[in-house]
Design a protein that fits this description.
about 150 residues, Immunoglobulin-like, 6-stranded antiparallel β-sheet
Length: about 150
């Protein structure tokens, strides 16, 4: 009888949890140039979420593409991120873009505009996957922002 009570308590707790709710994707914020050298430009952004579940999960950020002036330049890939329970959280996204890919013949017209206006159009596009206890959801990311070059 004691085992039945313990098992039923565990099952009741498990099935009454709001695990089937997905974390809410709020948006991409703080797109900026972190570092710029003669060989590479490092961009960063924060993907902001809020998790209503009492149980955390895991987010995977594979295959997010970075486009600069409408040309694909890099892919963001990060380690899996552990989602905290009942909290708002951000996932840092970082991309390393080789400067020779920005300054090639394909980007010549965009480059001239960039040099005159000192602005880059940076776009993050791809998927973030959420997984917890067999439940999964995919978030589509598509955020564009104009970045000022200093």
């Amino acid at each position: 009888m004691k085992r039945f009570i313990i098992l039923s308590t565990i099952l009741t707790t498990f099935f009454n949890c709001s695990v089937n709710e997905k974390p809410e994707f709020i948006g991409i914020e703080n797109i900026q140039i972190v570092e710029s050298t003669s060989n590479t430009i490092t961009f960063s952004a924060d993907a902001k979420f809020i998790n209503p579940n009492i149980i955390g999960g895991e987010l995977q950020t594979d295959a997010i593409k970075v486009y600069i002036n409408d040309n694909e330049m890099a892919t963001v890939s990060a380690e899996n991120f552990n989602v905290p329970a009942k909290e708002e959280f951000t996932i840092p996204l970082t991309a390393l873009v080789p400067t020779d890919s920005i300054f090639n013949d394909k980007n010549l017209s965009g480059l001239l505009g960039t040099l005159l206006t000192r602005r880059l159009k940076v776009q993050y596009r791809g998927d973030i996957n959420y997984k917890v206890l067999g439940f999964s959801h995919t978030y589509l990311i598509d955020k564009t922002e104009e970045i000022t070059i200093k």
